[in-house]
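Tutorial handout. Part one gives the primary structure; part two gives the three-dimensional structure as C-alpha cells.
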Amino acid sequence: MTGDAPQHRHACCAPARDALGQDDPPPRDATAATAFPPAPPRPAGHAGPPAGHAGAPAGHAGAPAGRARHEIAQCRVPALSFTMGDAQGDGLAADGERPLHEVTLDAFEIDATAVTTAQFARFAAETGYVSDAERFGVSAVFHLLVDAPSEAIVGPVPGVPWWISVRGADFRTPAGPASHAAQADPSHPAVHISWHDAQAYCAWAGRRLPTEAEWEAASRGGIDGARFPWGDAPIDGSDGVWRANVWQGTFPAHNSAADGWIGTAPAAHYAPNGYGLFQTVGNVWEWCADGFAADAYERHVAHDPRGPATARERVLRGGSYLCHPSYCNRFRNAGRSRNTPDSTMGNAGFRTVSLREDPRRPLLPLRALGD
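Part two.
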C-alpha cells in the first residue's frame, strides 16, 4: 500500500504491487482492454457449461455476444434506497466507513458469484489476454499456501512476512508454479486479478464493475443496517454454523480450516443472501469501479454515488479467507479497503454488473448454483 501510512496498512488484504520486488513489465497495449475479437461461434445445441458448474446458467439462444460470453448467474437488485456505511462502529477511521448516509440506486443485475477461474480462463484463452500478474512475473501468495520451487520465491514482503512474492503465481497457478496441484480449481473465484484485469474482462464480456454503492446494496441482500449479508448472526461458527470463508485459528501462523477451507472456497459455497448473492463477505476481496477516497462519504451525492474517477488506489470490498477479528474486521457489508489498480494477490477477485437491466433476461434458479 502507498500513501500516508505504511505499506502494510492493509496487509491482510495484500501488499501493493510496488512492494513485491519485481522487474518493470513490458508496456501494455493501450487498446488491450477494449479491442477484443468477436466471440467464436458456438456449436449447435450448445447449452453452456455442465450442470453443477458454479455460477453457470443455461445457455441463452440468440443472446448478444457479451452475454453469451459471461456465463455467471445473475441476481436482480431492485431500485432502492438504503443506509450506506458502518452502523455498528466496527470500522477504522482511516477506512472512511462513516458518516452513515442515504443512497438511492436504480435497479441493476449483478453476478451471483465472483467470476470463477474457469470463466476468466475462457476470457484469456479467447483473447490472448496477459494478466498483470503474468506481465510483472510475480504476485503475492499467503505463506501457508505457497507451492513453488525455491528459485520462484522472491521472498517475504518487508513488514508483512506472511505475504510471499512468488514468480509464476497467477490465476492459473495461484499458489505458485511448482506442480499440477497448484492449478486453480475452476469452480473457485479467479484470484491474482488486478483492477486492470477485471476491467479488461468486463470490456470483453459487455459488463462493468459495480460501483461501491451498488456492491454494498447487493451485499446487504435487502437487510438495511446489518453487519453481514445474512444479518447479525456470528460469522465464525461459534453457534455451529459457518456462514462465510474466513480465517480460523491464530493469524497468521495457524489456520485450523474448521470450515473446510484454508484458502479459497468454491464461488457458490455457503448460503446466498436475500438477493441470491454468494459470499460477498469472506473468500475473496472484490474490486469495485470507484477510486478510493477516505472522505468519499462526507461529500457523496444521494443518487448513484461514485468515488473519484481518478485515484491512486481503487476500492476493494468484502474481505477474504484471511480476515480475522484479531487483525482485520473488514469482512462486513460496510467494510472498505483499497489497493493500487495493478496490484495482484491470492485473495482478490471480482464480480460484475450488467451495463443495463434487461427484464427479458431469464435469471438462473438459485438451486442450480449449489455445490
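Part three, for discussion. The chain has one domain: 54-369. The CA atoms of residues 131 and 197 lie 6 Å apart.
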